[in-house]
Every structure is written in structure tokens, then in C-alpha cells.
Task: structure prediction
Amino acid sequence: MWILAPWSYNSKDFRKFKNKKVVCSIYHIENIAKNSPEINRIKEVDKFIDAYHTISLKTKDELAKVTDKPIYYIPLWVNQNIWHYIKNKKDLRNKYNFDDKDFLLGSFQRDTEGNDLSSPKLIKGPDIFIEIARSLYETNKHVKIVLAGKRRQYVISELEKQNIPYEYFEMTDFENLNELYNILDLYLVTSRLEGGPQALVECGLTKTPIISTNVGIADKILSPESIFDYKKLSTFNKAKPNVDFAFKESSKLIIPNGMVKYIEMFEKVYES
Result:
């Protein structure tokens, strides 16, 4: 049995599968502090787990402080049939009513906490995104923010307070989202903590210029020159995208190649 988070199952669920091998994925650990609710939950289900899976080495190192069970590090695969480069940018921009002169800065992940649509989810760094967007807009009035995904209320509210223009595509499908990646001048990851994020490899395959904080698998997908320190925002101004590097590294995770290590992991756990 493969469970996608230790908090998604309870003890009763595990008892149903007492004769099964169980692999648990953990994408990030938000609070490694002793006796934190997250750590206690991992310890609670640990006795039912045969092996763990993480999508970043950073999470693997943190998880190793909590369990002595085997931990496999395997990034998520990426579907090249969905995420791909589109050559004709002018037609795409016309489709979404953007001008050639617009500098399009993208962010496609949630930024609020749970059902609370006003409080920022700080590990995702929406406050950092706003600070960078404000700085860019002050020096270039052609900057426009392109948002997608659910729960973007915090960023939208802050953009409106500062009169920074934006377009929001909430419930867009994969085809349109792929097109949105392709019209961007820059995608920005400002997270303080992540397992992935998957936007790194999606930008890689769509050849979307991207700059990121050093979270999750950023240092595996992006060139060092494309990573900045969120604690020192001045480092953002020195960072620059390396599209070819990101494309090469992301291409290693396309299907079916990106799934091979998962199959190997499940075979090892099954045979153990």
C-alpha cells in the first residue's frame, strides 16, 4: 500500500492492511521540533510503515531524525505530454490579451492557510513574492503578475493594495496552464519550505525562465545561478534563469523514465 502522507490514514485504516507492505511518502516536514504535532503524527504511524519515500534530500535528512525505517529519495516524475515548449509566443500572448511589451511574472501555487483565505501560508513565501513583485514594478511599469491555482486571495489582496496589475486564472486546465507557463518572462518560487515544488520541472520542460529559493529539489533542477536566498532578497537581483540547464535536468524525470525508480522501490519493499 502506498500512502501519500502520514496524516491521511488512521490506525483503523492500517489494520485493514496488516498483511500488506506499506510505503509512506512525506514531501516536507514543516516542524521538526520535538513533540510537534507533525512529528508526533509520524511517530504514531511509524510502526505501520515498512519504508518511507521523499521527493527531496532535504526532507530525507529531516525524516532520518525521526525514524530508522528505510527512506527512499525519488523526485516526482513529470508528464512531457502535458508540459512542453510552445514556440509561437506572440499568438499565445494575444490569446490571453497580453502585449508584447508586458513583462509577465508568474506564480501558480496556493498562498493561504487551509480554509482561512486571508492569512498567508508563510512556508510558501507569498509575502516574499509580493516584496519582489513590488520592487520589480517600481522599476518597470510593464510588469504584470500572472496567477493561477486556488487560494490566491492573500497575494491578490496585496497586489490590489499596491496597485500592481495582475490577471488571475483560477480553475484553468492543464492545457491552458501549459500555455500560461509559455507566455511568462519569469516564474518565481519564493517558498521557505517545499517538497518539490513541481513547478520547477514544469518550468523546465516548458523552457520557462525560473528563479527559485533553495527549497525541495531546486538545487537538483536549477543551475546555482538561478537560486536566491529568501533571507537576503538582494541576492534575487543577482540570480538569473538558465533555461537550458533546467530543461536538461527536468527531462531526466519524464515518463516513463521518472517512474523507473518508483517501481524499483516498491519491488525492494515487497521483497524485504
About this structure: DSSP finds eleven helices and ten strands in the chain. The chain has two domains: 2-77+255-271, 89-251. The longest strand covers residues 143-148.
